[in-house]
Amino acid sequence: FQGIVITPLLLLLFLGSSSSVPFTSIFSQLFMTVVVPLIIGQIVRRYIKDWLERKKPPFGAISSCVLLMIIYTTFCDTFANPNIDLDKFSLIIIVLIIFSVQMSFMFLTFLFSTRNNSTFTPADTVAIVFCSTHKSLTLGIPMLKIVFAGYEHLSLISVPLLIYHPAQILLGSLLVPTIKSWMVSRQKALKLTRQPKAPVKV
């Protein structure tokens, strides 16, 4: 929700008011692409919730297939463009920067959610670390195509997002065992500290 407002504002800030970027059109297209389908889905879900719980359609598999197709077609569109002009060294640098940025974000969110005066539970911390640093191609690619429609270097601009999405999956799978063991041990420690002490018999 913030992205559809912040993205045009950032363009206005960095490109200036003299730019030919149609901010009103961008905002309306992002609203129709992101917000309207979400609202319609929530309204429809209220009426077919019981049917969904009975039939249990394979929405998880369908969404995974759609996401895979989006990633595949975006990769094809990006690297099939002869004007992409991206050498191997630059690609390696981009990968290293993205991994560093993502690890920094995860570390900062972990520190924020585990500070002394924090009211977050260990499970909350895990959700914050993974969810707050998550960026999806299903939202990012439509935003790029709307904001930079007709721009000849659109394929080049989408490269960082194409790397970020697989990177978060890879980092997530590598960090899951460590984060899980931390969460379990932290939960046990909290339970021990909250248990009332048995009275000592004299």
TrEMBL record:
<protein>
    <submittedName>
        <fullName>NTCP7 protein</fullName>
    </submittedName>
</protein>
<keyword id="KW-1133">Transmembrane helix</keyword>
<feature type="transmembrane region" description="Helical">
    <location>
        <begin position="125"/>
        <end position="148"/>
    </location>
</feature>
<dbReference type="InterPro" id="IPR038770">
    <property type="entry name" value="Na+/solute_symporter_sf"/>
</dbReference>
<keyword id="KW-0812">Transmembrane</keyword>
<feature type="transmembrane region" description="Helical">
    <location>
        <begin position="154"/>
        <end position="176"/>
    </location>
</feature>
<feature type="signal peptide">
    <location>
        <begin position="1"/>
        <end position="20"/>
    </location>
</feature>
<dbReference type="Pfam" id="PF13593">
    <property type="entry name" value="SBF_like"/>
</dbReference>
<dbReference type="InterPro" id="IPR016833">
    <property type="entry name" value="Put_Na-Bile_cotransptr"/>
</dbReference>
<feature type="transmembrane region" description="Helical">
    <location>
        <begin position="60"/>
        <end position="80"/>
    </location>
</feature>
<feature type="transmembrane region" description="Helical">
    <location>
        <begin position="92"/>
        <end position="113"/>
    </location>
</feature>
<keyword id="KW-0472">Membrane</keyword>
<comment type="similarity">
    <text>Belongs to the bile acid:sodium symporter (BASS) (TC 2.A.28) family.</text>
</comment>
<keyword id="KW-0732">Signal</keyword>
<feature type="transmembrane region" description="Helical">
    <location>
        <begin position="30"/>
        <end position="48"/>
    </location>
</feature>
<dbReference type="GO" id="GO:0005886">
    <property type="term" value="C:plasma membrane"/>
</dbReference>
